[in-house]
Structure formats: C-alpha cells, structure tokens
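Exercise 7b. Backbone tokens:
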C-alpha cells in the first residue's frame, strides 16, 4: 500500500469519525445540546449551522417560541418563512426552557466563535426578559401577553427560576455567560432580580398563617395560587417549589425574609414527604404504557406535584378537572402522560444543612438584641425562625432565666435543650396553634434496640427547663415507639401544654430527677407515660387512644415517689374501652392516682404486672379518693393499694417535689412564670 493511499484512508476514517460524532450530537435533544460541555463541537461548522437556525428562529422582540428542535436542518422555504415571521412577537415564551436554552447556546458558541451576531442576539434575549417582567416582579408564561392562564406569574416547569438564574449570573458577573453586557444592563438585571425575589417572597403561600411553599402559577394581580389547564388546579407544588428554594439558597447574604422563606419551605418539604411508596412504570417500545403506585418500604421519599392548599393532601386530575385522591382513578392518557410525583425536593434537603450553617445561623445570630428574651417566628418577624437556632444561641449556664417566646406556627423540627442550656423557658403564643412536630419512630431510626430514645420531638437534657402554652407532638402515627417529649433533666416544668403521640408519648427519666406537669393534655396508646423520674401530673387530662396502658414506670428502688397524678381526668377515644392504669416497666415502679376522675374505659382490676411476679411485691400502685365509673377499688388487683387519709397526707407538692438544695430551688415548681 502506497504512503498516499494510507493518508487517504486515514483522512477518510477521521472524516467518518467526525461525521459520526456530529451525527450523534445532532441526534440529541435541543436541551441536551445546549447543556453539553463540548468546546470542540462548538468550534465546528456543524455548530455554526445550528447557530444560524437559532438566529433565524429568534423574533425581533428578542424571544423564541417553545418546543423547537433548533438543530434540525431547515429547507430554503422554511428559512424564508422564518424571516417573514421576524416581526411577529406572538408565542414568544420562557415556557419549557424556551429563550433560556437559546441564550445558553449562543453564549457557548460565542466563546468559541465570537461572531457579533451571537452577542447581539443574546443581549436581545436579555432585553426581552427585562421587558416581559411585571411591575410586581413576576413573569408571565408568554410575552407579549397571551389571553388565558398564560398571564399568570409562572413558576410552572421552573420558567421564572430560569429567568432569575440568568439575571443572577449577569448581575453577579460570574462569567458563566461568555457575553458581557454593559454596566447599564447589569444594573437593570440587578433591579429585575431583586424584584423577582420580592415576588417569590410575597407569593409564598400561608397555610393557616404559616409559610409553606408555592403554586405552579399565581394570579398576576392578587398573587394567589391560580389555575392553569383543567388538570392543573390551584395547589401547593412539590416540584416547582424545589427549584425556587434552591434559587433562594444560592443568594449570597440572604435577607431575613429570604432566610424565613427557605426555613419555612424546608419544614414544609419535611412535613409533606411521602415514604414507603414508589412509582412503577410499564414501558412498551420505549413508551410508558402504564403507571401505578406501589408500596415499598425501602423507597426513597417522593413528593406530590399537586397538594391541597388547606391540608397538603395530594390530589390528581383528569382533563375534566375533577379532583381525585388516587392516581389509579385517573384515565390512562393523563395518568401516563404527566408527572404526578417528583423527587426534586431531595436536593433542597441535601443542601439545607450546609446552607443553614453558613447563612441562617449567621443571619439570626446578630438579630437578637437581648439574649435573655428572644422571639421565634416562622414569618421572620422575630429574632429566629427556628426554635433550635434560638436554643443554640442561648448563653450556657446563665445566671438568669432565658425566655424564648415562640409565635404561632407548626415548627417541623427536632428540638434539643442540651445540658449546658439551663434555665430556659419556652413560652408559646397559644397551646393550640404553636406546635413543635416531628415524625421519628423506632423503625425509622433503626439503630438497634435503644432506638426509642432517639425518637423525641423535644429532648430536654438541661435542668430548670420550663415550657408553657404550646403543643409538642410526634406525628409518626401508630407505628410503634415514638416519643414526643423526653425529659432527662431535673426541675422541669410543663404547663398548659398538649403532649401528643401514640406509643411512648412522654418519657421522664433520671434517678432523683423531678418534673411537674400542670394543666396539660397528654394523649397516647401504649405506655404513653413512662420512665424512672419522679413526676407530678397536676390537673391534667390523660387521654387514652387505644386499649393499652396509661403508664409504665421504671422508678428506682431508692426513690420515695414515682408518678403521682393529682386531680387529673382520665378520658379516652370511643374505641378505647379496656385500659390499665399502669404496668411496671421495672419491678420497683411507683404510680399513684389521687382525687382523679376515671372514665369507664379504665379496667376494673386497674393494674397489670407485665408478667413480672416480683413486681407484685416490689412495686407500689395506689389510689386515693378517686371518682367516676373507672374507679372500682373493690375490684382492683390484690397487690395494689387504696391509701388511707394519713398516708395521703404524704403526697403534697412540697414533699414530692422537694429539692435537695432547698435554699436555692425552693418552690421551683411554682415560681416558673
């Protein structure tokens, strides 16, 4: 073979390879082409030919139509038709990535082939985005405005987020786009970006006064959630809200309002995530033939695309616009042809801890003017938006009490009061509307046999803690052990609070530790008041939700008192008709009910030995002067006690709750307000 022939073969193979690579690129979707990092291709004649198409498709107003595969070759007739449409602004949009994708492509090819026409077209796109913005900061789906739902402020398919992301790169001069606008345009982009963020803050939906997330579209005048297509009803969006929050988290030195918006949205994402369910697809010839939701305990969290505005319940719609609450009720065409669930919020939850550490704590740390009196409010009107942040920023071992006032709202967070944050008081705005809620449970923690003790919504490890006028709940449901409030500290007062859960609602522990519960509503199923500390429940409502046991004390042998219920009312759900007063978690359990009103749900025998014969001798279960149909002293187990008057005199607050350091902590249980 001659040398010349070898050269020809090599050139042919090289040409064939290049043509193959180019064909592979042009076979990609337009979106994929605009997003790929391939500088060599953007130098090619193939890329230049595509750029000519992009220029042709751009209207003189600066925008592009949507759903166009710009890389497809155009005939001479098609080119002539596009030239004739240059002055027609109709159907220019930012929907489905239109305009933003073309601008990205122009930036990438300009960097490799600096044709001034590309720069001019890019800047015309910037001008289009600036002109399309409403005075309130939002953007419509189409500009010029097109009649119908297209005039709504559009978060749908991340349209407005894409616009703001472009403006952010320009105003911050990041160099992401190779084309640098003039300082005048940069300043306009900054103003437009700030207005857009302000619009996002104003459109964040309040559910019963609490900030949550966003709808796919909002009315351009009222800013309220709005309807789009028949099956896109006003709702909270698990999908669109994710990209909005990621944008807010990308803002340097976020304002107090942005910080509050992010914190509230993250709490909402945590609250509405769906676990144990996954989407199963049947694909035939590359097309989805069927979708259905199946139970899978190992499935990662997902979020519904549409959720009710008032209670976050996922719903689905066919083209008739009628809400359904199961995907299986939707016709095949919409069921298989639309994205009803998303996992996009997972990126928010993944990035949030770092963002919170870098921004949220830094912002709120400087807002508290008086470190001994601070306010937590989800709407950003207080010193903190998170209860835990307020605790973390409280002084250690203070000489005087730290009062943290918590405004109404559902605070979806685990709260820990560490051992060094003594003398802290939580004061809620109202018992019914100030709610600390989380949903950890034994199986979810899954760290061995002691997982129960890692589940509390609120964990108190610091002495002299006081909480009043709020609700603490474990919202996991009837899924096994799940603590709402865990008290592992001394001289703790809980006043006028709801403590809600199922199994193991309230845990009080620590040999020699004492707690006082006053005017509280405590609800649960199995052993929902348990532990080894001395605890007095004064004028509380102890509410059973199922047939089980109210208490499971594990009192230390050295403790004179265990659980003491004074002037309490024992109530129950209708289905709870056979409930024991208690059983011994450990054999020296001590539990006494005095002057309590017992409902008919209390079993006549009253107490259960938990199959521990030793407990019948070692435990101390007693009652005194109780009333109601559940008080049947004549039918109680023989090893329980009915106190005499002389014995009952030993059960006073001063005696039960006496502190070893009487001088310093005298009457600690009454001087807590």
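Sequence design result:
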């Amino acid at each position: 073979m001659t040398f010349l022939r070898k050269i020809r073969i090599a050139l042919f193979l090289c040409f064939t390879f290049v043509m193959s690579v180019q064909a592979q690129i042009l076979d990609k979707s337009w979106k994929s082409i605009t997003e790929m990092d391939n500088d060599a291709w953007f130098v090619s004649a193939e890329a230049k030919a595509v750029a000519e198409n992009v220029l042709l498709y751009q209207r003189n107003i600066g925008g592009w139509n949507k759903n166009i595969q710009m890389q497809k070759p155009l005939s001479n007739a098609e080119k002539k038709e596009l030239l004739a449409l240059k002055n027609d602004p109709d159907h220019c949009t930012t929907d489905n990535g239109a305009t933003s994708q073309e601008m990205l492509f122009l930036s990438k090819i300009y960097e490799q082939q600096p044709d001034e026409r590309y720069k001019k077209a890019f800047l015309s796109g910037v001008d289009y985005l600036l002109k399309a913005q409403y005075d309130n900061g939002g953007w419509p789906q189409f500009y010029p405005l097109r009649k119908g739902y297209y005039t709504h402020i559009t978060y749908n398919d991340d349209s407005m987020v894409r616009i703001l992301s472009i403006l952010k790169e320009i105003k911050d001069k990041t160099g992401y786009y190779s084309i640098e606008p003039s300082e005048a345009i940069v300043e306009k982009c900054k103003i437009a970006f700030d207005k857009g963020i302000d619009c996002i803050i104003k459109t964040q939906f309040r559910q019963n006064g609490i900030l949550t997330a966003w709808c796919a579209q909002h009315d351009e005048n009222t800013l309220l959630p709005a309807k789009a297509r028949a099956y896109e009803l006003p709702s909270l969006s698990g999908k669109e809200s994710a990209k909005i929050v990621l944008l807010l988290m990308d803002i340097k030195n976020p304002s107090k309002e942005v910080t509050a918006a992010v914190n509230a949205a993250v709490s909402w994402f945590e609250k509405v995530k769906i676990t144990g369910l996954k989407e199963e697809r049947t694909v035939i010839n590359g097309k989805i033939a069927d979708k259905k939701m199946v139970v899978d305990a190992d499935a990662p969290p997902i979020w519904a695309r549409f959720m009710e505005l008032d209670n976050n319940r996922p719903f689905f719609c066919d083209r008739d616009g009628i809400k359904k609450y199961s995907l299986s009720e939707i016709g095949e065409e919409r069921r298989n042809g639309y994205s009803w669930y998303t996992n996009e919020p997972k990126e928010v939850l993944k990035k949030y801890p770092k963002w919170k550490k870098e921004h949220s704590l830094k912002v709120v740390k400087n807002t508290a003017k008086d470190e001994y009196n601070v306010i937590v409010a989800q709407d950003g009107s207080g010193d903190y938006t998170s209860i835990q942040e307020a605790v973390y920023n409280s002084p250690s071992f203070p000489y005087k009490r730290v009062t943290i006032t918590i405004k109404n709202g559902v605070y979806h967070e685990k709260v820990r009061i560490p051992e060094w944050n003594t003398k802290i008081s939580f004061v809620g705005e109202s018992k019914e509307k100030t709610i600390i809620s989380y949903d950890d449970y034994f199986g979810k923690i899954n760290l061995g046999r002691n997982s129960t003790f890692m589940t509390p919504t609120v964990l108190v490890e610091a002495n002299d803690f006081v909480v009043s006028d709020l609700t603490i709940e474990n919202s996991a449901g009837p899924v096994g052990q799940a603590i709402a409030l865990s008290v592992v500290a001394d001289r703790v007062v809980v006043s006028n609070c709801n403590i809600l859960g199922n199994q193991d609602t309230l845990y009080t522990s620590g040999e020699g530790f004492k707690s006082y519960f006053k005017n509280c509503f405590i609800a649960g199923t199995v052993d929902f008041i348990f532990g080894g500390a001395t605890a007095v429940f004064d004028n509380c409502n102890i509410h059973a939700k199922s047939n089980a046991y109210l208490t499971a004390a594990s009192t230390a042998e050295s403790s004179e008192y265990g659980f003491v219920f004074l002037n309490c009312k024992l109530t129950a759900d209708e289905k709870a008709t056979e409930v024991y007063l208690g059983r011994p978690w450990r054999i020296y359990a001590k539990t006494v009910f005095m002057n309590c009103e017992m409902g008919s749900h209390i079993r006549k025998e009253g107490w259960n030995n938990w199959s521990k014969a030793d407990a019948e001798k070692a435990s101390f279960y007693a009652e005194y002067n109780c009333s109601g149909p559940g008080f049947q002293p004549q039918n109680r187990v023989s090893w329980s006690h009915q106190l005499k008057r002389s014995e009952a005199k030993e059960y006073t607050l001063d005696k039960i709750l006496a502190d070893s350091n009487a001088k310093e902590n005298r009457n600690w249980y009454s001087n807590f307000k």
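Instructor comment: The domain at 405-663 is CATH 2.160.20.10 (Pectate Lyase C-like). The chain has three domains: 22-203, 208-213+224-366, 405-663.
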